Amino acid sequence: MGNHLLQHQALSATAIGIAAYIQSLPEGTPIGIKVLAARFPEGEIRIGSALRELETHGYLERRRERLATGRVVTRTYSYNKPGHPASTETPPPPPPPDRAPGPAPEPEPEPAALPAAASAPDPAALELLAGLRRYDPRLLLSERDVRRLAPDVTAWLERGVTPDAVARALSADLPAQMRRPASVLAYRLTALLPPHLPPAPPPPASRDMRRPDPLQNCTGCDRAFRAPHPGRCRTCPPEQHAAA
């Protein structure tokens, strides 16, 4: 990493910091705007602006590429120095010949938005996130942040955590300075996710609920005692001794 980046006169401090962070990551790490916003306190608007700065000055390049499955994705390349030659990776195979090339594809939605379109958020998760400001007024979230964090809250609820316990885990011991409460909550929902609740132990074996033996009259002392068959009670001697 050269001084041409760290002392760049036209880049903002946010852009220089994000460029240094991206260059420290291994190849293949996701570096989308939402991922970076969950990692840093800066919001999505500032991070998106910083990525555009890096793209303008040649430190970042975003290409739309077609995978072998035919799906079109956006791949980001980070360069240590502007004007670095493009990657020498083998380009993906072209589309099948029977598929005529069409116009330029429209920008695809963010991948994180696909699950929300497929299934509606859990109402319990939405209610929990919207009510966090009762625990701390600083946890006043926008509707967009509530819907974005709802799937992570649902994961907690599916693991047997009660809504009150989730709210306490998210609102307890918050930092004194919070520029982006949604980013703090996103980190806690991921880093503090509890394991699945183990299965409950089997209930103890129930006691024998058989009906008690019927009452019998002792043939020796005429006292009542419980026994399955008529005869003598335990306090009387056996019949053979009594006869003797």
Average pLDDT works out at 79
Main beta sheet, described? 2 strands, antiparallel
Segments where pLDDT lies below 50 for 5+ residues? 85-91, 112-118
For the secondary structure, the number of strands is 4
- Strands ordered across the widest β-sheet: 1-2
- Give the CA-based shape: elongated
Number of helices: 10
- As a percent range, the share of helical residues equals 25-40%
Percentage beta strand: 5-15%
Order of helices and strands: HHHHEEHHHHHEEH
Q: What is the radius of gyration? A: 36 Å
SSE-based structural type: mainly alpha
Distance between the termini: 113 Å
Short précis:
This protein has 244 residues and is mostly helical. The chain is built from ten helices and four strands; from the N terminus they run ααααββαααααββα.
Give me the secondary-structure topology.
Layout: H1 3-6, H2 13-23, H3 33-39, H4 44-56, E1 60-66, E2 72-78, H5 113-118, H6 123-130, H7 143-158, H8 163-171, H9 181-191, E3 215-217, E4 224-226, H10 239-243
Antiparallel strand pairs: 1-2, 3-4
Give an account of the 3D structure:
With 244 residues, the chain is mainly alpha-helical. Among the domains are: 3-78, Arc Repressor Mutant, subunit A; 113-191, no CATH class. The protein is built from ten helices and four strands; from the N terminus they run ααααββαααααββα. The strands form two sheets. It has a two-stranded antiparallel ribbon with strand order 1-2. The chain is elongated, with a radius of gyration of 36 Å. The N and C termini lie far apart (113 Å).
